Amino acid sequence: MNKILVVVSFVFVSFLSCTGLTDRQRLANQILSDTNLLKVDSMARATIRNGFNAGSGYSQIWARDMNTFIEIACEESDPHELREAILLFFALQQPNDEMIDGYVLKEDFTWYDDTPYYSNAAPKHVAFKNTVETDQESSLIQIAGKYIRKTGDREILNEKVAGKTVLERMNAMVDYLMRERYNEKYGLLYGAMTADWGDVQPNDDFGCDMNELSDPAIDVYDNAMFLIALDYLLEMAPDSPQAPRWRSLREGIAKNVRTHLWDEKRQKFIPHIYPEKSPIPEGFDELAIHYHGGTAIAIEAGLLS
User: Fold this and answer.
1) Helices (H), 193-305
2) Entry pTM
3) Residue 83 and residue 64: Cα distance in Å, rounded?
4) Cα gap 189→218, rounded to integer Å
5) With contact defined as beta carbons under 8 Å apart, do 223 and 261 qualify?
């Protein structure tokens, strides 16, 4: 737990480079002595011990969620159950190599969705995906990387799921993103226009599916998530024949983020680039918005000092 507090303290202190050393030390001490953080950590661990789903009345297991708690799950959960939960995501990978958002037992699939995802490799489950987002593949690769880092279980990379190894499936996810969600002009991934790291668009009532009403948009969140995923791939399989390609992709995406998404005047990231048309109404200055979610992930990806 001390390590967690030190990391939190470091992050806050890093944002305060413009203040005096005394102020930074005072804030660091305040964070380190805050017993609420211990309470939150204890509550989080108790929650994870009860399962990987999103809540007592919300039985889905999401890749985006698991990516945030996988390290704690490695410490608090049954190792076999956690491994199987991760492998189930790979079993539900689609024929075009895209990754789903999450999955649920078929009997618990009770909401309307006109595009559920199925797989013969996971006959008891149904999957779903909010296609406005472009972080599902990156989230699962990060899950695998964090899981291996915490457990040392490198054999999961060679585990065959429906005829392909986990590592092969992760590389295929990179192929999918570059084929289906890569904008050649900017050299960056795109999704639909949503708020910051969110997965709901304002264009229709459902809001979660990319469709003819969507506005394609490039943001820092999707691309920073992809950079982190590429870093984990290079860590997991540094000797892979694909490693030079991953490294080149990583360098190119990072360079293009700084070139196209960094607002030099405001010293922050541009909320969105719209390759087609902008949905922003006249008179509203979207450039004035600071997107803290994407910025936080950009820091994690090494795009900011």
Assistant:
1) 220-236, 243-260, 292-300
2) 0.89
3) 16
4) 6
5) yes
Instruction: Say if residues 93 and 99 touch (Cβ distance below 8 Å).
Output: yes
In SS3 terms, 176-209 reads as HHHHHCEECCCCEECEECCCCCCCCCCCCCCCCC
Residue 239 near residue 181, CB atoms below 8 Å: no
Q: Which long-range contacts (CB under 8 A, 24 or more apart) does 270-273 make?
A: 270/220, 271/196, 271/219, 272/193, 272/217, 272/218, 272/219, 273/186, 273/188, 273/217, 273/218, 273/219
* Segments in 92-219 forming alpha helices (H): 136-151, 166-180
Strands 191-192 and 216-217, how do they pair?
antiparallel
pLDDT tens-digit readout, 95-132: 999 999 999 999 888 877 777 899 999 999 999 999 99
The residue assigned the tokens 């599916």 is 209
φ, ψ of residue 199 to 5 degrees: the values are -125, 35
Burial status of residue 108 (CB atoms within 10 A of its CB: 0-12, 13-18, 19 or more): middle
Cβ neighbours of 7 (radius 10 Å) = 10
Q: What is the pLDDT of residues 147-198, one digit of tens each?
A: 999 999 999 999 999 999 999 999 999 999 999 999 999 999 999 999 877 8
Two tokens, residue 275: 């390759």
Beta pairing class for 191-192 and 164-165: unpaired
Letter string b/e over residues 77-91, b meaning 16 or more CB atoms within 10 A of that residue's CB: beeeebbebbbbbbb
Q: Looking at domain 34-300, which CATH architecture does it have?
A: Alpha/alpha barrel (1.50)
- For residue 240, give the DSSP letter: S
Structure tokens at 285: 């200055």
Determine the Cα angle at 153 with ends 145 and 148, to 5°. Answer: 15
